[in-house]
Amino acid sequence: MSNEERAEWAAIALNAYRSEAPRTLFPIPNEFERVRLGVVAAEAMARATRHNPADHVVNDYISAELIIGDLIVYVFHLVDDKVTPDQIIAAAEEMRTPYPVTLTALCTVAAADAGQTAAMLAALMEAAAHFGCDLPETVAQAKDFYEEEKAEEEAEQDA
Questions:
Q1: Distances in whole angstroms, Cα of residue 96 to Cα of each of 31, 35, 101, 123, 157
Q2: Cα–Cα distance measured from residue 34 to residue 121, given in angstroms and rounded to the nearest whole number
Q3: CA-CA distance, 155 to 159, in Å (whole number)?
Q4: What's the rounded Cα separation, in Å, for the pair 52 and 54?
Q5: I need a labelling partner for 26 at 20 to 30 A (CA). Which of 7, 37, 154, 159 fits?
């Protein structure tokens, strides 16, 4: 699979997220709503990428680790030419912090037309944490995997 395909899978999740999320970034949905929206996005991506219907549901630690972990990688591919993984992670973290919030990273990401994607990432992070994932580890592994995939594809193009 190509990185372009991975970005397309994230776009499927983003469309599902947008269909149920508030149209604007503010007010930021509460924690429980972020969990629900994260599950909506993850399950939409799972239906598009996994053949077994049993793998279409996020309802426990294992399904969250697998499906949400993959989707976080795909999110990085979706915003590849707009913002860095660190920028979108920082924006998502800002959206998960209790009020009052500082939205410096979110403003940077929104200016690059990736605000809704950052909001979806915040929802995915909230859902992963809800199901007991080690969030810093999940995000770090996703970022490392994204960087490996990107390097592999660039090496193939240079060959």
A1: 8, 11, 9, 8, 38
A2: 10
A3: 6
A4: 5
A5: 7
Digit-coded pLDDT (tens) for 104-154: 999 999 999 999 999 999 999 999 999 999 999 999 999 999 999 999 999
Q: Which residues of 72-111 are buried (b: 16+ CB within 10 A; e: fewer)?
A: bbbbbbbbbeebebebbbbbbbbbbeeeeeebebbebbbe
Check if the beta carbon of residue 49 is closer than 8 Å to that of residue 9: yes
For the chain, report the end-to-end CA distance as a whole number of angstroms.
Answer: 18
> How is residue 16 written in tokens?
């599902």
Q: What is the CA radius of gyration of the chain?
A: 15
DSSP 131: T
The greatest distance separating any two alpha carbons of the chain, rounded to the nearest whole angstrom, comes to 50
